[in-house]
Amino acid sequence: MDKQTLLVTGGAGYIGSHTVVELLGAGHDVVILDNFSNSSPKVVDRIEEIAGRRPQLVEGDAGDRSTLQQLLSRHRIDATIHFAGYKAVGESVAKPLAYYGNNVGGTVVLLECLEEAGARRFVFSSSATVYGDPASVPIREDFPTGPTNPYGRTKWYIEHMLNDLAVASPDWSIGILRYFNPVGAHVSGRIGENPRGIPNNLMPFVTQVAVGKRPQLSVFGGDYPTPDGTGVRDYIHVVDLALGHLAALEKVARGKGAWTINLGTGIGYSVLDIVKAFEKASGRPIPYQIVDRRPGDVAQCYADPSLAAQELGWRATRDLQTMCADSWRWQEGNPEGY
Length: 338
Ligand code: WQD
Prior knowledge:
By secondary structure, the chain is of the alpha/beta class.
């Protein structure tokens, strides 16, 4: 694919920053639009340190019309990768209007501004959470969808919006990527997952136990119908995920219309598998206690990754030990985050 100028909303976030590093490394120019509501401006310096090139930065909200119109008048954007959005499942239950306003409402404004500017190539950060409680695993893209929380519904509604847009305006080219469970960090240890407060997700909680920031891990449920009774998920290295976006941009540049693809490894690991792998990778004990199930959790969720291989020519290659070792290097080198 020729050199592109790419707009990356939420580009200072966990997945966004790792994707920007790979985009710069592939020779593209990048404009990050981020309001730093869940990230730090320091990430841009770390991206430059790793990539040897600095992305352009616009500080602002990805759903703010005047910010977007000004940005699109200054930059000729070839394609957009849209990461920006609120992403905490529990918080979405408590604050549904904030999630619908920011995630869905903000994306409507973004798409209207892109349409106006004629920038009609779009890659959307969706989530396996749209599948809800799958009837079986591994999960294919044609499985029924039915998210069980407001956060997941915002992703689901945006997916429907994008498919409707592609029907109404056939000159749009849209890739919808359903992520499974992103973990790990860039091998340099200079960027990584940087949750504020108590981590909702498993891996950052485990890394904080390993570094002594948390006394022990609470394992949410030991009585699921899984090999060891704990929840099974498809953990995918964030750099593999980032590279999946480069492949998605190639496909978006080639055609028209909207398509949906899972980005996962196809391998399911339990919570206790992660604990054991992390102890091996870090050399640190991870004390844990099995407690009640977390409301809304499903027993198993992992991808059938064959469509990504077929349509994107992409597969995840980094194994669980690498995911854990890279997570640990980031945590050990940045105990207070950025
Ligand atoms: C993984 C497993 C928990 C924490 C969520 C969102 C999804 C995506 C990824 C945004 C489960 C168990 C966890 C802990 C635990 N986010 N667990 N103790 O719930 O699969 O997916 O994050 O896109 O949309 O739904 O990820 O990391 O929270 O949980 O036992 O302290 O670890 O029960 O089995 P999840 P998770």
